[in-house]
Amino acid sequence: MKIDEIKLDSLDTAGFIKSKSEEIASRVGTGKAVNALSGGVDSAAVTALAHRAIGDRLKTYFIDSGLMREGEPGWVVDIFARMGIPVELVDARSGFFGALKGLTDPEQKREAITQTFYKEVFGGIVKKSGATFLLHGTNFTDVEETVAGVKRQHNILEQLGIDTQASFGYKVIEPLVQLRKQGVRAVAKDLGLPADIYQRPPFPGPALAARVIGEVTPERVETVRKATSIVESRLKQSGAFQYLAILHNDRVTGMREGKRDFGQQIEIRCWESEDAVTAKPTPLSFDKLAGMAEEITKNVPGVVSVTYNVTAKPPSTIEAI
Ligand code: XMP
Predict the structure, then answer these.
(1) 3 state SS of 75
(2) Pocket of ligand 1 (CB under 6 A)
(3) What pTM value is reported for the model?
């Protein structure tokens, strides 16, 4: 596998958009393509790029896995509707939670999400649509980390030698694979996407499941979703690369209304990074941290402890699984 990286300082966004649009149009030919939009900058850029290349021969789906953040599915679909790009919302929540039931191992959880996403949900969609191509927003860092064995990104298939044609019935086109995140942001901006999208902090493919240690149940996702909303709204102006909440599996003794409460723990992470390959924790003020802890313990049922991660990547990683 050899991919030529295009560095930010040598990226000509207009030229990139033109050549990738032509490449997509020529590979898809007179056929049809599908893609899944998560609302992250990578999949948003691919959607706008491919829509420009093949218009309504691209069919875009937002898969509601039940693992997304508060209000996210509707918010994303609306943004694209305003740009004249139709996105179909697919409710796949029971399929994902069914596949995740009883799993606690991080790689098994990622594998269950990959299989549910590509085989069950997309396999079905692609078969029905008659599309033979899937467009995907894989970027250079995703490939690098997967090949290095750091973490199995759920979107890397062909790079690992998995034949998507044989396994899932379609070919994958990855137009952003030569770019790192900053390059994707520049392309997204040039494609006319709103700042709320092209400046969005990264969010992992497995969504909130990457932030639940132990079994991923609807109730546990709801806990981390509520904590995520609080952390995101309080750190939005921090200028940090990424900020998130993690739900731990261990319980700790806390106190509520004078009684012992063997409750749950949330860990906050906030990162300074250029490209997610290495990262340092942001030195947030104690007041900021204490404010988040207070709001989380008050508003997220069952949480009695909030901690802040002060470890760099490596040896930490940005997400928890
Ligand atoms: P880690 O946790 O490996 O994350 O330090 C590095 C960056 O990648 C994001 N991430 C993912 N993105 N699919 C993605 O598209 C994935 O499976 C995935 N896992 C992690 C993470 O949010 C961070 O920005």
Answers:
(1) helix
(2) 142, 145, 150-151, 153-155, 202, 204-206, 210, 242, 276, 313, 317-319
(3) 0.87
- How far out from the chain centre does Cα 84 lie? 23
Amino acid found at 85? I
Residue nearest ligand 1's atom 3 by CA: 317
Distance from the first to the final alpha carbon of the chain: 26
What pLDDT, in 10s, does the model give residues 222-242?
Answer: 999 999 999 999 999 999 999
> To the nearest whole percent, how much of the chain has pLDDT over 90?
78
Angstrom distance (rounded) from CA 312 to CA 28: 43
Closest atom of ligand 1 relative to the 155 alpha carbon: 13
Distance 114 CA to ligand 1 centre (A): 14
Give the closest residue (by CA) to ligand 1 atom 15: 205
- Which bin fits 86, alpha (ψ -120 to 50), beta or left (φ > 0)? beta
Q: Where are the beta strands (DSSP E) in 191-251?
A: 242-247
Please give the Cα distance from 24 to 222 (Å, whole number): 38
Kindly give the distance from the C-alpha atom of residue 30 to the centroid of ligand 1, in angstroms, as a whole number: 34
Residue 161 binned pLDDT confidence (cut-offs 50, 70, 90): low
What count of other Cβ atoms lies within 10 Å of the Cβ of residue 317? 16
Which pair of tokens denotes residue 114? 């990959």
**Measuring from atom 12 of ligand 1, which residue has the nearest CA?**
204
- Alpha-carbon span 89 to 26, nearest angstrom: 28
Amino acid at 38: S
Q: What are 120-133's pLDDT values in tens digits?
A: 887 788 778 888 88
Tokens of 232: 């995101």
Please tell me the distance from the alpha carbon of residue 144 to that of residue 1, in angstroms, as a whole number: 11
State the pLDDT at residue 155: 54
